[in-house]
Specification:
The protein is mainly alpha-helical and 330 residues long. Helix content is 54%, strand content 8%. It is built from 13 helices and 5 strands.
Length: 330
């Protein structure tokens, strides 16, 4: 019997999951549940590389689990668990830290970017967190890791680490491959369409569309979306604002570019923004309704997470035990 390729995906519980997260990652996770053996993890240990309010982080972690289920992650088809509830993640990260050159970590783009912005507020966890990411992936013997082009560097590090360990201590880890997300899923900020929509821009109210936003809020944000002065509605990547709105519209309607351009021919940007808001509101409606129910059913949510954690724990225990023994630890 041929097994399905195993896929590992993680998402941090900081900020509110937004349209970019959904169209760029979660929607693909949901659609590929039949194709792969999926392991989805809320990576809350990654979140503490910067200071967090403990109560807020704890609540956001469970909120995100509920949202992923609302988006269509099925407990019958996929494994969904919270990173910190399986201690082998941090235990394996330590083993990998001991075989990773500091030069490899210092070259990581995210560390360089964040340390440049906040040179006096950088903790060792941020420098070392790529090893925790590698541990997340390697712990489950993952064949594939869905990533955007901007995250490919982290998968390359995980691959290098796996090959180094296998070379020095014997075959232990599957060497993962990046599963590059399809083009068109890169959603940009509504306020600045030259920058990717981000959870870290929570101080900019018109930057992103949160999946928990009400229809009124969604419409208001789209009405304020940045466009340009040309007044022509077309798929032109050089006109970032209009292109972003059309890209979002296409993601929800699944229409061809020429069909969309014909639909909006002769119309103004006001009508474009209104129509995009309408399809987003309707597209997210089932998710909002499901989330509203799930967040009130805490016992059900905890039961799902407990069962999934047991399933993931079996794999994690076996992998860590093998790696630990091969390094000579008792």
């Amino acid at each position: 019997m041929q097994h399905k390729p195993r896929v590992f995906s993680g998402i941090q519980p900081t900020g509110n999951i937004h349209l970019g997260n959904y169209l760029g990652a979660v929607k693909n996770w949901v659609e590929n549940q039949e194709k792969y053996e999926n392991i989805f993890c809320v990576v809350n240990s990654h979140a503490i590389t910067i200071p967090q309010d403990p109560k807020v982080l704890r609540q956001k972690t469970y909120d995100l689990c509920a949202m992923l289920l609302a988006c269509g992650i099925s407990p019958q088809k996929s494994t969904l668990f919270i990173q910190s509830q399986i201690q082998e993640h941090t235990s394996l990260a330590w083993l990998l830290t001991c075989i990773t050159p500091m030069g490899d970590l210092s070259r990581m783009t995210q560390f360089k970017d964040k340390s440049a912005k906040n040179p006096k507020s950088i903790f060792a966890g941020l420098f070392n967190y790529p090893n925790l990411m590698s541990a997340d992936i390697l712990l489950y013997q993952s064949n594939l890791v869905p990533v955007g082009e901007d995250q490919k560097q982290h998968i390359e590090l995980a691959r290098d680490t796996a090959m180094r360990f296998n070379r020095d201590y014997g075959e232990t880890f599957v060497v993962p491959e990046p599963l590059i997300l399809k083009e068109g899923a890169r959603i940009m900020g509504l306020d600045d369409p030259t920058k990717k929509m981000s959870k870290s821009s929570s101080d900019k109210p018109n930057h992103s569309i949160a999946l928990i936003d009400t229809p009124d809020v969604i419409l208001k944000k789209f009405k304020k979306a940045t466009t340009d002065s040309e007044g022509i509605i077309a798929f032109d990547k050089n006109r970032a604002g209009v292109y972003n709105l059309l890209n979002i519209y296409q993601c929800f309607t699944q229409q061809k570019a020429e069909e969309i351009e014909a639909e909006f021919a002769g119309l103004g940007y006001g009508k474009l923004k209104e129509r995009v808001a309408e399809v987003v509101i309707e597209g997210l409606r089932p998710i909002r309704e499901s989330y509203s129910k799930l967040i009130l059913e805490q016992d059900y949510l905890h039961k799902i997470l407990e069962e999934s954690t047991e399933s993931a724990q079996k794999i994690a225990t076996a992998t860590y035990a093998e790696a630990k023994a091969k390094m000579g630890l008792v």
